[in-house]
Amino acid sequence: MFRMTRYIKSLMHPTPVPPPARPPGPVVIWNLIRRCNLTCKHCYSVSADIDFEGELETDEVYTVMDDLKSYGVPVLILSGGEPLMRRDIFEISHRAKQMGFYVGLSTNGTLITEDNIEQIAAVGYDYVGISIDGLEATHDWFRQKQGSFADSMHAVKLCRQAGIKVGLRFTLTQDNFHELPDILRLLDEHDIDKFYLSHLNYSGRGGRNRKRDTWYDMTRQAMTMMFDHCHRELQQGIEREYVTGNNDADGPFLIEWAREHYPDQVDALWQRLVNWGGNSSGVNIANIDNLGNVHPDTFWWNYTLGNVRETPFSQIWSDESDPLMAGFRQRPRPVKGRCGDCHYLPVCNGNTRVRAYNVSGDFWEEDPGCYLTNQEIGVAESDRRVATPAVEIPVHNL
Ligand SMILES: C[S@@+](CC[C@H](N)C(=O)[O-])C[C@H]1O[C@@H](n2cnc3c(N)ncnc32)[C@H](O)[C@@H]1O
Ligand code: SF4
């Protein structure tokens, strides 16, 4: 995750560069249930409104939580499918809070109503993230349910009224790119604390629909818009939190933005971002799916490291023998092509390996989602990617 606000603030108000953070354990994103009342076109968990057999029972979830706690995991993001469809979600959430985890709820929001908002507030979630993938028509089409935008925005309102920290999560595609300015306006209108722009990752239905990924030039425009917007708000004294995910080229692209706006701060920003460390799949991010399978992150459901019913998470995560995990933990990662040659590699850490794998069949190929130019990354113009980012070519055609 790239914490844009933090870094733009550091450009505006420089302070000494802090040393690299060393979290005690990975953030665990836990898909507690795969069932969902929506069937979004990009869904990595390929969720639908059917029962998925063999999901972890409540007592099994608790056993895993105890292990996660003793292993030093600081954060649990409870996700799905739709986590509010799990009948024991509030029991699990209360227990997680009592154990001292930072607990986030990752929800589509449509099941948050007047009937359960008090129960949700009583948990004391540290953060509730609600997905909004465009304005009403686009969102309802993308999430394949009429009325889902209205229900999700109603949930945002209920959460805000209940004093819950709430964020919108927006997955950028060709279909909603043009609505990003309107979505940014919604944040202000509804006094929303946080905005998470998620780049499309190529797994599950997101893999099948990867041709809907933004063109490079769109991504560049979207990110420039985000930087400018966040910068403007900070100048006005508004401290909303902007973060992005699934494209660690956002770090280097902010350095490129800083060259224009804060040239004397570029070196400090570069060092801050090296300390941030870029992509952290398999290192500071872990995933447990609904069946208890452990993956290097949420987008690697086709790659299983073990199952918590057979082996504790702590043991699975500490095992150094898996080749993909060994690569994830290597600095620099053994990436190839443009990624291997790029001078920003220490910043972005090779970006998103799922996209490379989905497109090439090789974990360590260049990430086709990197939207930086050859000139920006310091490689020869003749380097092998064929398209220039200014040309409107979908990523999958490269
Ligand atoms: C799988 S959903 C589960 C929680 C809940 N059902 C929801 O939609 O928010 C978690 C988040 O992942 C995002 N997501 C799903 N598939 C994705 C993909 N292929 N690339 C990027 N983000 C994706 C969703 O938009 C959502 O914000
Ligand atoms: S992205 Fe979320 S709401 Fe959409 S189908 Fe997947 S789990 Fe359901």
Give a short synopsis of this structure.
Residues 22-239 form the Radical SAM core domain. By secondary structure, the protein is of the alpha/beta class. The chain is built from 17 helices and 11 strands.
Run of helices and strands: EHEHEHEHEHHEHEHHEHHEEEHHHHHH
Which consecutive residue ranges, at least 5 long each, have pLDDT under 50? 386-398
CATH architecture: Alpha-Beta Barrel
CATH topology: TIM Barrel
| Count of helix runs | 17
Terminal Cα span? 26 Å
Report the CATH C-level class. Alpha Beta
Biggest sheet, spatial arrangement of strands:
1-8-7-6-5-4-3-2-9-10-11
Shape: globular
Can you say what the CATH homologous superfamily is?
Aldolase class I
Structural topology:
Elements: E1 2-3, H1 4-12, E2 27-31, H2 58-71, E3 75-79, H3 89-98, E4 102-107, H4 117-123, E5 127-131, H5 136-142, H6 148-161, E6 166-172, H7 180-189, E7 194-199, H8 205-208, H9 216-235, E8 241-245, H10 250-261, H11 266-276, E9 285-288, E10 293-295, E11 306-307, H12 313-318, H13 323-328, H14 337-341, H15 345-348, H16 353-360, H17 374-377
Parallel strand pairs: 2-3, 2-9, 3-4, 4-5, 5-6, 6-7, 7-8
Antiparallel strand pairs: 1-8, 9-10, 10-11
Helix pairs in contact: 1-9, 9-10, 10-11
Bound molecules: S-adenosylmethionine (SAM) and iron/sulfur cluster.
